[in-house]
Amino acid sequence: MDDLNKRVLSVMEKKLLSKSAFANILDISLPVLTHIGSGRNKPGIDLITKILTNFPEISPDWLLLGIGTMKREQINKPDISLELQKLTDLSSKFPDFNQNASKILEYHAILLKEILYLNELNPYLKAIQNNSDYFSLELAQLKDDLIIKVKD
Q: Is 66 left (phi over 0), alpha (psi -120 to 50) or beta?
């Protein structure tokens, strides 16, 4: 029997599965597995793919080439829980930040409208000022005229 056939059967044995249970998991017929077990047939790429898909902890290098161990090496992942917590804390502040920024922009828009409105009123205010100055001069003139008439 070929070493590849032995490694396929080793997966079944390591998982403590019967031939029929292993065949069911891999969605192959029991005779196909029996022929692999007897050495009559070699496992095809379809069967290898099914094994690696259904048992992701199996090392492809070991299954195909016999290199390394049956199980994939676990990659030591750094502990990023503290960073994740900081991100969670920071992201929880964003709704308040966005809400406050929206309010500031809203007030800014209101103030800008008021400034523009005041600028539009500026010519009218100048006209009123000019009229006020004119009326003040007229009033002063009338007062002077009345004082002169009263003295005469």
A: left
